[in-house]
Every structure is written in structure tokens, then in C-alpha cells.
Amino acid sequence: MAFWDSFYKKKKDGDPSFKKQLKGLLGYSPGNVTLYKTALTHRSIKETSDENNERLEYLGDAILSALVAEYLFKRYPYKGEGYLTEMRSKMVNRAQLNDIAIRMGLKKVTLFNKSDASLKTSQIFGNTLEALVGAIYLDLGYKKTSRWILHRIIQPHMFMDELEARDINQKNKLYGWANKHGKTLEFETIGEKLENGRRLFTVAAVLNGKVIAEGKAYNKKDASQIAAQNAVEKLGIENADSAGHGY
């Protein structure tokens, strides 16, 4: 860890190249650089809560959810609560945010233990994006954060027409397929742990007593939807409407 301690110290002491990267990522010169460095620091580098991004992730998650809710409320004035909730879930789910974070270049500037191979393919970059939103909110306030999210996240990375057409209720699709083929489908919570101060649930899709896919999220409903989506993809239900798959 000596290299990473030195690397982090260099950033903390004021690395011009880091500031340039940060400005390129944000689109503006940040006021409180230390705040953003904290947002980009994973706990695999700094374990104490005032030096890693877990607290900012908690804040950013709430801010992002609220701002996306406001955006949807204004965009769809005649849609009901259920539709708006479903659209928000499509926009801010863990996998979606992780993909957006990587496309934005967050993987290149996030400080994490690169010797841990599991982190390179994990969803910590979506979590880092939430932490970054928390930092922006503390630095710029609600209105400017709202504009930043619109111009840097929603407009370039969230294609609303595609999201509207996407069937998020994968559980219903999977239940329908199971009923059609005479199979028994259940969703079971197989894991629960604290992560970033919140409960992370692991839910399994169980077909005829066999676990075929898993999903993780901060609530059981989202975890079961992710498990269902993974199962749908594994079974090829998107492309095959009739054939059995041996489960």
C-alpha cells in the first residue's frame, strides 16, 4: 500500500495534472478540491470514513434520486406514480450508473486498490459517481447540481426513448415464462450485509429448486429485479419464446 499512500498524498498536496483531469471530468474548476478527492477515494485505499467516499456516496445517492425524480416529474406531467417510479429505477439502478461512470472516465481517476482484481470489474465506479454527485452538491448547491446532472449524466448517457421502451419488470416476464413451461419459480434472499452504512441484499432466482441467477441491491425489490433480469438473459427469454432450457 506504500505506492497508493504516496499517490494519495501527491493528490492531496496539489497535483496539477489531477486538477486538470478533474476539470475535464466536471466541466468546471471545483471549489473544494479536497472534497472531490474524497469522493474519488475508495475504502480499499483509505479505511476511515472521513477519507473515503462512503459518506459522500450515501449523500449523492439521495441527491441523484431526488433530482431524477424531479426531472421525471416535469418531463411526464400526465404520468402516474407507478410509471415515474419505474422510470427512475431504470435510470439510477446500480448497473446503469456503473456503465455511465466508466463511459465518463471515472475508472481512470478513482483511487482504489488496483492489485485487487475483483474491484476492477465491480460496480464501485457507479458508487463513485454517486459520491461525486454528493461532492458537487456540497460544493455548488442544489440548482447547479441539478444542471450538472442534466447536462453530464442524463442528456449524454440516458436515452429516454430507449428507457421508456425497456421492460424493467423482469420478474413478471420470468414468472410468465415459468408458468408457460410448467416450472416453479421463487425468489429467495440468500445474503444480507452492511455496505457503505446500508444493507446490501443478495436475492436468488430459484427455478425448480435450482439457483439460476442472483442480484444485489440496497433493497430486496431491486435485488430481485436484477436477479430476474440476469435469469432472463441466461435463459435467453428475450430471444426465445418457446423452447425449454433444461432447468
Structure characteristics:
3-stranded antiparallel beta sheet; 12% strand; disordered N terminus; mainly alpha; disordered C terminus; 2 domains; 13 helices; Ribonuclease iii, N-terminal Endonuclease Domain, Chain A; single chain; 247 residues; Double Stranded RNA Binding Domain
Please characterize this protein's 3D structure.
By secondary structure, this protein is mainly α. Helices cover 61% and strands 12% of the residues. It has helices spanning 2-14, 16-26, 33-39, 54-75, 81-92, 94-104, 106-109, 117-120, 124-140, 142-157, 160-165, 170-180, 220-235; strands spanning 185-195, 198-207, 210-217. It has a three-stranded antiparallel β-sheet with strand order 1-2-3. Helix 12 (170-180) packs across helix 13 (220-235).
Task: Please state how the strands of the largest beta sheet are arranged side by side.
Answer: 1-2-3
Shape: globular
Distance separating the two termini: 46 Å
Oligomer description: single chain
CATH superfamily of the largest domain, by name, is Ribonuclease III domain
Mean pLDDT: 84
Structure annotation, total helices: 13
- The CATH architecture classification of the largest domain is Orthogonal Bundle
What is the domain tally? 2
Instruction: Give a count of the beta strands, DSSP E runs of length 2 or more.
Output: 3
Strand content: 5-15%
Largest beta sheet, briefly? Answer: 3 strands, antiparallel
Query: How many whole angstroms does the radius of gyration measure?
Result: 20 Å
CATH-derived topology of the largest domain: Ribonuclease iii, N-terminal Endonuclease Domain, Chain A
EC number: 3.1.26.3
Keywords: Cytoplasm, Endonuclease, Hydrolase, Magnesium, Metal-binding, mRNA processing, Nuclease, RNA-binding, rRNA processing, rRNA-binding, tRNA processing
Domain RNase III: 19-141
Pfam family, one: dsrm
